[in-house]
Design a protein that fits this description.
The complex is a heterodimer of chains A (120) and B (107).
Chain A lengths: L2 E5 L2 E3 L5 E8 L7 E7 L5 E7 L6 E3 L7 E6 L4 E6 L8 E8 L7 E4 L3 E5 L2
Parallel strand pairs in A: 2-11
Antiparallel strand pairs in A: 1-3, 3-8, 4-5, 4-9, 5-6, 7-8, 9-10, 9-11
Chain B lengths: L3 E4 L2 E4 L5 E7 L7 E6 L6 E5 L3 E2 L7 E6 L2 E6 L9 E6 L11 E5 L1
Parallel strand pairs in B: 2-10
Antiparallel strand pairs in B: 1-3, 3-8, 4-5, 4-9, 5-6, 7-8, 9-10
Classes of the chains: A mainly beta (120), B mainly beta (107).
Chain lengths: 120, 107
């Protein structure tokens, strides 16, 4: 069974930093691209970042570029999102997502999410 | 960036109704269009990928169609467990945009 378990969320002041983790199990982690997707309270889904299977290529949404860094540790089946210079508008539930990346990329497995609240 | 326009933003339906949700993109994305269902307090689940391919375990009352810039998600006969929010998503570009969502409510 595929499992994605996020951790690291919490309450942080504006300008602060936080690192999210996602522990993956039940599949061969180092063969899949991975993503972070967020959802602000009462709002829709917003894609944040993606990383390829070996970590050599990353992409970011404009809203987080230069502030967030996605990375992965394939030896320990873990995905990360380092978030710096946090703003109130970064407040959201952050989902770790697996990309099936077959003929058409699609997000076939999601974690339960970890909540990040940026507030003074 | 590719913009997604999903409509309607909300929809009321009765059990057994046929429901259609549409998604329009700002440029052609071939068939790189996916649909997700999200229930309150839960993570989204993949319903349809590649415009019309049903994800394993998804009931056959769900179907997708379209190509280029115009796509539809159809539920042939809405069931009580289908009341949720639905999102389209393009995976043509590496900036994987979602639509704003369609909330399907019980009439």
């Amino acid at each position: 069974e595929v499992r994605l378990v996020e951790s690291g969320g919490g309450l942080i002041q504006p300008g602060g930093s936080l690192r999210l983790s996602c522990a993956a199990s039940g599949f061969t982690f180092n063969t899949y691209w991975m993503h972070w997707v967020r959802q602000a309270p009462g709002k829709g889904l917003v894609w944040v970042s993606r990383i390829n299977n070996d970590g050599s290529s990353t992409t970011y949404a404009d809203s987080v570029k230069g502030r967030f860094t996605i990375s992965r540790d394939n030896a320990n089946n873990t995905l990360y999102l380092q978030m710096n210079s946090l703003r109130a508008e970064d407040t959201a539930v952050y989902f770790c997502v697996r990309d099936r990346f077959m003929a058409v990329p699609s997000f076939d497995s999601w974690g339960q999410g970890t909540r990040v609240t940026v507030s003074s | 960036d590719i913009q997604m326009t999903q409509s309607p933003s909300s929809l009321s339906a009765s059990v057994g109704d046929r429901v259609i949700i549409t998604c329009r993109t700002s440029q052609s994305i071939s068939s790189y269009l996916n649909w997700y269902q999200q229930k309150p307090g839960k993570a989204p689940q993949l319903l349809i990928y590649g415009e019309s391919r049903l994800q394993t375990g998804v009931p056959s009352r769900f179907s997708g169609s379209g190509s280029g810039t115009d796509f539809t998600l159809t539920i042939s006969s809405v069931q009580p467990e289908d009341f949720a929010t639905y999102y389209c998503q393009q995976s043509y570009s590496f900036l994987y945009t979602f639509g704003q969502g369609t909330k399907l409510e019980i009439k």
